[in-house]
Design goal:
Chain B: This is ABC transporter ATP-binding protein. The complex is a heterodimer. By secondary structure, chain A is α+β, with helices and mostly antiparallel strands. Chain A has 13 helices and eleven strands. Chain B has 15 helices and 13 strands. The chains are: A alpha+beta, B alpha+beta.
């Protein structure tokens, strides 16, 4: 090995500028690639976050501008009409939907008299849901029960715009965070004079509010559900803003037809209200649109950057080969095999790439620290570095393949001719 | 001389087409990516009110309860409670001042049925002169209208076009959520980007402009708006004028450093009084100007800045790559350089010749880069982001593309040209 490396080092020393350029190229590519890959990973993690509702089967129709005064009779009528659409398996009202960016938020403590701004509180996104919402959303009950008919009927909107009742259903993650290693059932959530008893725990439902997530270490799943009677289902965004979601569940196959029929039906019932129907999957995609566009941009830029780097290495190496045709001929004439010439250029490239990634890893780390400081990036998982190194090694070897083959094809007779 | 170098450069570039193409393509890709992302980033972080942003301030105070408060460690909330907002507004201590809130509204003609939905702004009289909103017909309302809870309205040009066919509609009425509002003014197209006065209120940071502007009091009387923002206590949230929540944006125009200092004192004094009366617990105040506020509230999405940073990293890779390729190309022509040097060309001549070659690659890279940038922006426009429709190349960016392309290529050409000009004539001729 030593025998093979020494002449390479000698030749590199003679071509310091070119060698330095290749190393710089690899180092830069390594720095950008590692961070881009880690960013792609982070965004993909977000995009793929689990959400324990029946995402594929849900359609949501949002009405803004209906009448608060007649809601008590309007909503049961609407629900009956929607239930009659063929293919609808369940339908219910909800103040809003997970990931729709209009979440209602509150903060709760675990001790009587906990004030709203206590930093020990859990910040949660809350949903005011009508009867049957567990089926319409496809929530998975883990422990306890969902609300009973009385709880729905007796829960109105109080002054704080939350439920006047005392029952709440929370997600498993939130339960675990608030009462680790205990059952959350029967435990109480407090906020000033308000209190709610946990009657059920459901599998994790995502919340959309960034503030809720950031407070308390990315609380993606800090969601709670309150029951609400039809008379109070409107106005959770303030009494002057009657907004309401109808959540319809069907099979994914029936979904688009159901959604269209539901929008038409509600248009008929509320000619002057604003009615917007959406597939739940579209709502989710919309929520993660920025993350997915960033991830795709990164993928494309990385691919192009790797191609550019490969072409650069190819260009410089072929120049090198051409410059050294005579030397290669001499080596061949004194007995070097084609394989040895091939090996020489491959090894040379390997050494340059290794030097490049060594510097590049430092660069990658520095960029990562900067991004963590300024852009809420997470620390790059360690395994991205070796992934990156291997990628660049392979890239370097592929790029050098062509020029090295050409070098190996130089006939020994070149040594005897002047160039 | 210039023409001669140009001729030489063209010949040389033609001589090795693959290498030339590779260099131009590399440079163009880097430039295309960086101009695309830079266009979006400057667009989004642009100054919404050029020439005025240094005079607009956003007073902030903190009505939140004690709960673990440590002086100097918290930012006062963005918005004010109705009570504080009215107190500060009625002091009239700024040159101009306006409260701002937002609501989604449906607008029809008085006899219309299907409303047009859009953003409604609830504000006070000074809003229009303070933010330089341009009028097509009529004008804004006055302070008296605010005080008298007058149901008047300023509508956007596009609403006027849709409802009244673009005719002068001043004096006519529109119906908003069941109440008639008399039109006093019609705006020309007006959509500051980013929408600095409303972004924190309803989350719409970019867009085509708001639909209607109503006096705050009259709108609240009509049951429009008044969504709680940040609440700091349990208490009735059904009355926007009394709820323990901050929800009103407050802007003042202050024309001198002295006026700013006075206003700062005024805010501190107001908070001191409130603490004395037992209404307030926290003494922090803030008076950021528009630019500082935009910076602090981070209206430009992180992903936009990240993409721009990444694109420039990529451009750097491309430039280094071009340096390598140019160097290879130069050194391959050592003999030719040797001959030219032997025939009397100075080092300066050789240097200029190779820089010309680099510049030519830069221009070609710029043209192709522009194409890539247009393609990138076209892609951006088809993304579901709020700012998507704004992503267009303006003349400034067009020019910048070539500046960046030339700068990048000349930078890339420096090292190879310097190395080329250092070639010793004799040894090269001998070697040949």
């Amino acid at each position: 090995m030593d025998m093979a490396i020494r002449p390479i080092l000698a030749s590199l020393r003679a071509h310091r500028t070119t060698a330095f350029l290749i190393i710089a190229e690899i180092a830069l590519a390594c720095g950008v690639l590692c961070n881009a890959m880690s960013m792609i990973g982070q965004n993909m993690d977000d995009i793929r976050l689990r959400n324990a509702i029946d995402e594929g089967g849900i359609s949501v129709v949002r009405i803004s501008g209906s009448e608060v005064k007649t809601a008590a009779s309007d909503i049961p009528r609407d629900l009956a009409a929607l239930r009659n659409i063929p293919g609808v398996r369940a339908v219910a009202t909800s103040s809003d939907m997970p990931l729709d960016n209009s979440g209602l938020t509150w903060s709760f403590g675990m001790h009587p008299g906990a004030t709203m701004n206590d930093i020990r509180n859990a910040y949660v996104e809350y949903y005011l849901v009508g009867e049957g919402a567990d089926k319409a959303m496809g929530l998975h009950l883990i422990e306890g029960r969902f609300f009973d008919a009385d709880e729905y009927a007796n829960s109105t909107l109080n002054g704080e715009l939350v439920s006047s009742g005392h029952a709440v259903v929370i997600t498993a993650s939130l339960a675990k965070r608030m009462w680790p290693r205990q059952s959350a059932l029967g435990k109480l959530l407090y906020s000033d004079a308000l209190w709610y008893a946990v009657v059920g725990v459901v599998d994790d439902v995502l919340c959309s509010d960034d503030g809720t997530r950031d407070a308390g270490g990315r609380g993606f799943y800090n969601s709670v559900f309150f029951p609400i009677s039809p008379a109070s289902a409107l106005g959770s965004l303030g009494p002057a803003n009657p907004v309401n979601d109808y959540v319809l569940r069907s099979t994914p196959r029936d979904r688009d037809r159901v959604l269209k029929a539901a929008v038409a039906k509600l248009h008929q019932l509320y000619p002057s209200a604003r009615i917007k129907g959406q597939r739940y999957t579209d709502m989710r995609d919309q929520y993660f649109a920025d993350a997915s566009s960033l991830a795709w941009t990164l993928v494309v830029v990385c691919a192009v950057m790797l191609a550019v780097t490969a072409f650069g290495i190819m260009g410089l190496t072929s120049f090198w080969v051409q410059q050294r045709r005579r030397q290669i001929g001499i080596r061949r004439a004194v007995g070097a095999t084609r394989g040895q010439i091939l090996g020489y250029f491959r090894l040379e490239n390997f050494l340059l790439t290794t030097a490049g990634v060594a510097i590049g890893m430092g660069l990658a780390f520095a960029i990562n620290i900067y991004l963590i400081k300024h852009y809420e990036m997470r620390l790059m998982p360690w395994y991205y570095l070796p992934c990156c190194v291997v990628t660049l090694w392979v890239l370097g070897q592929l790029a050098v393949q062509g020029p090295a083959m050409r070098a190996a094809a130089v006939p020994p007779v070149v040594a005897t001719r002047s160039v | 001389m210039f023409g001669y170098y140009l001729d030489l450069a063209v010949r040389s570039l033609k001589h090795n087409k693959v290498l030339t193409l590779l260099m131009v393509l590399t440079l163009a890709l880097g430039i295309g990516a960086s101009i695309t992302t830079l266009t979006v980033a400057t667009l989004l972080s642009g100054n919404p009110l050029p020439g005025k942003s240094g005079r607009l301030f956003h007073p902030q105070i903190d009505p939140f309860p004690q709960d673990g408060y440590v002086s100097g460690q918290t930012q006062p909330p963005f918005t004010l409670t109705y009570r504080d907002a009215m107190n500060l507004l009625q002091l009239h201590r700024a040159d101009r001042q306006a409260l701002v809130s937002a609501a989604t509204v449906g607008v029809t003609k008085s006899d219309g049925v299907e409303p047009i939905w859009g953003n409604g702004v609830l504000t006070t009289a000074d809003f229009f002169p303070m933010f330089d909103s341009p009028f097509q017909f009529g004008a804004g309302w006055n302070v008296g209208d605010d005080a008298a809870h007058q149901r008047v309205v300023v509508i956007a040009g596009y609403i006027n076009d849709q409802l009244f066919g673009g005719a002068d509609s001043v004096g006519r009425s529109v119906r908003i959520h069941g109440h008639d509002f008399r039109i006093v003014g019609v705006l020309k197209h007006w959509a500051p980007q980013p929408r600095f006065y409303g972004a924190e209120l309803d989350g719409h940071t970019f867009g085509d402009g708001d639909a209607v502007f109503m006096p705050l009091e009259a709108a609240l009387d009509a049951g429009i708006g008044g969504m709680p923002g940040q609440c700091f206590g349990t208490g009735d949230q059904r009355d926007p004028r009394a709820m323990p929540c901050t929800w009103l944006g407050f802007w003042v125009e202050l024309d001198s450093a002295e006026a700013v200092a006075h206003y700062r004192n005024l805010l501190d004094g107001y908070v001191r009084d409130q603490i004395k009366q037992g209404q307030f617990y926290r003494s922090d105040t803030a008076l950021p100007d528009l630019t500082q506020l935009m910076h602090r509230e981070e209206l430009v999405p992180h992903s936009v800045k990240l993409k721009a940073g990444l694109a420039f990293g990529f451009l750097l890779v491309c430039v280094v790559n071009t340096v390598g390729l140019l160097l290879a190309k130069c050194l391959r022509r050592s003999q030719e350089i040797g001959v030219r040097r032997a025939l009397g060309a100075t080092r300066g001549h050789i240097f200029a010749q190779f820089m010309m070659e680099a510049a030519l690659i830069g221009v070609a890279g710029g043209v192709l880069g522009l194409l890539f940038a247009e393609l990138g922006l076209w892609g951006t426009r088809h993304q579901p982001a709020e700012y998507a429709s704004l992503a267009r190349l303006d003349p400034k960016m067009f020019l910048l593309t070539f500046v960046v392309a030339l700068a990048a290529s000349l930078l890339a050409g420096l090292l190879p040209s310097w190395r080329a000009s250092g070639v010793a004539p004799a040894s090269q001729i001998k070697a040949g």
